[in-house]
Design a protein that fits this description.
This protein has about 200 residues and is α/β, with parallel strands linked by helices. The protein has helices at about 20-30, 60-65, 85-95, 105-115, 130-135, 145-160, 170-185, 190-204, and strands spanning about 10, 35, 40, 55, 70-75, 80-85, 100, 120-125, 165-170. Bound molecules: guanosine-5'-monophosphate.
Length: about 200
């Protein structure tokens, strides 16, 4: 175990804002961050792999994990469960490594309750029109469904108040740079570095 535990970063935001794209881009580069692979009951999509994109589990297995308290948070999203296995997060943080979660807003609010020392980053759409385009662009969804999703997105945007940082996703590369600068700054917080500098003074 290291002296100092790692930092838990949570990237969240309304559906359609591009959380997955920003997260994937961030992890394409060399990083010390550890991505917490979520568990889901949704079907695997082409190109995805178990233990890489998600841990794909049955509804029964997922509900058993909930019952055993093995999830740090979970949410039902479009009729499927998504959740963060607790053990990986706790062990990795205890080993002094930063952990990164990319989750939807209901789950992020649960983490905020259970782990308020986490750093909460809200990914913000460049505009509601843009968000509408992205939600519409996903497929041949009915006008009613698109309107519902947009209404939901508005409610999700109102949850921004629970977060520490807001990053606008006007450009993926810029958004990734902003997230990286938040991570860097959090490591320079006085509370985190003070002990190490005090040791230097004591050694004089
Ligand atoms: P997708 O099915 O497109 O991979 O993901 C759908 C949504 O689930 C995305 O908004 C993603 O951020 C969210 N998500 C992925 N993993 C988790 C998780 O462990 N917990 C929660 N609450 N949401 C998650």
């Amino acid at each position: 175990m290291k002296d100092e535990s790692g930092i838990l970063f949570i990237l969240s935001g309304p559906s359609g804002v591009g959380k997955g794209t920003v997260r994937k881009k961030l992890f394409e580069e060399k990083t010390d961050l550890q991505y917490s692979i979520s568990m889901t009951t949704r079907d695997m999509r082409p190109g995805e792999a178990d233990g890489v994109d998600y841990f794909y589990r049955s509804k029964e297995d997922f509900e058993q994990m909930i019952e055993n308290g093995q999830l740090l948070e979970y949410a039902k999203y479009v009729n499927n469960y998504y959740g963060t296995p607790r053990a990986y997060v706790e062990e990795t943080l205890a080993n002094g490594k930063d952990v990164f979660l990319e989750i939807e807003v209901q789950g992020a609010l649960q983490v905020k309750k259970n782990f308020p020392q986490g750093v909460f980053i809200f990914l913000f759409p460049p505009s509601l029109d843009e968000l509408k385009n992205r939600i519409e662009g996903r497929g041949t969804e009915s006008q009613e469904l698109v309107l519902n999703r947009l209404k939901e997105a508005r409610t999700e945007i109102e949850m921004m108040h629970a977060y520490d940082y807001v990053v606008v996703n006007d450009d993926v590369n810029l958004a990734v740079d902003r997230v990286k600068s938040i991570i860097q700054s959090e490591h320079l917080r006085r509370e985190r570095v003070e002990k190490q500098y005090k040791k230097i003074l004591e050694a004089e």
